[in-house]
Every structure is written in C-alpha cells, then in structure tokens.
Specification:
Length: about 240
Amino acid sequence: MAQGPDLSLKIDGPAFGSDPPLFSDLRLHVPGGQVLALIGPSGIGKTTLLRILSGVERRWQGKVLVGGKPAARAPMPGYLFQDARLLPWLSAEDNLRAVAPELTDARIAELLREVGLGGQQKSWPHALSGGMQRRLALARALSVHPSLLLLDEPFVSLDRAMVRDLQALFLKVFANFETTVVMVSHDPEDAARLADRAVVLLGRPAQIAADVLLLGRRGNRSVAEIDRIAADLAAAVDPIGAVA
C-alpha cells in the first residue's frame, strides 16, 4: 500500500471573529506516513486543525495542502471523532455502508475482523460496549480507504484497560495501512505510545511550543521510555506544574 500524503499547513488565522484569533502564523509540515500527535490544553484549537485538514472547516486564512492538493479537494480522510457517533438505527454493517455505500459483504467482514469485531455485522450499536463502539467507528473511518487518518481524542471516557487494548489495535492499523496520521490528545502518554512525533500547542493565538521527534520505534518502546517521553511532553504542556 502506498504511503500516506505529506501535509503542509500555513494558517494565518481562522475567520471566527475572535480576538485574539485562534491561530496566527502557524506553520507545520508532516511527512507522508508519519504519526503525529497534537497535544495541548482544551480550547487551544487542536480539533479545529483536524477540521481544517479534513476540508470541513473553511473559515480560515492561509494554505493547507494534503498530498499537494488543497485540503478541500484532497481525497476524503478517515475521521474518528471524540465519541463513536454511530447511527443507532443502523446495524454495524450499515453504519459502514452509510459512509461507503459501495462496500461488499466480504469487505465489510474483512474490515470488522481487522478491528477485532469479526462476526458482528448484524450487531446494533447499543449492544456493543464502549470499546467495541470505538472499534466500529475506526472500521467506518477505514472504510473509505483513507491515505490520511484523523483521530480526535480517540480514547476519551474509556477506562485504562480498554485504552490499552485500543492502543494495541491502533498500532496494528498504523502499520498495516501506512497512512499519515494526525492524532489529537490531551494525554502525553498517548503520544508516547503511538506517535512518531509530538507537537505541543500553547497560547492564544496557538503557537508550537515544542516539536519533538520521539526516540524509539512506536510499538517497541519500553515502559521506561514511554514514561520518560510522557513526562517530558507533560512538562512542555505545563512547565509550572512540572516544577511544582
């Protein structure tokens, strides 16, 4: 499978009428195939950046390219929201077909197996646990054959055991699909476990306070390495708290 697209962001400010603006002179380049974690406090603009990359949010000034094309004209990315956002009146297979009507029964079965939901085609969302719903939402995001995967707080409101299971699944998906990934998180440990690189956003307008290539291969980092990386990123997000 081809490697995911390069991303180039030059954002001079969303036209939201806010003062100060959410962004001003924000510059970021993401090489194709990289897993990038965006970290920062709530309200800093992380989700807005995902919406801009997806082409959904157009109230901004600047230039954003996905594989050399303006974001609004680039191929549809896979998008995983903070909550599963499944359609409760549709079965698992029909939730996938809601975004990719061309899916065959065989492809649906394959997608569900890939996310650990083999045999759940006819299941209703209410019959699935919170973790299983996230898995189904991931299958839906992958159903459009994305070269770019956007993840907005994918582990929020889940217990840690469930988070560990999903993190292992995401590592497998990243390796198998070779997409470019931008993952928003408030938890530095998510970046330490899953990402190749972490960008910390702070301030208003939001600026890049830290841009760190993470040592070691994602999925192969030791517990000690993960703890150290997470602590360093936490200190970048809240230097006063780190000292206290």
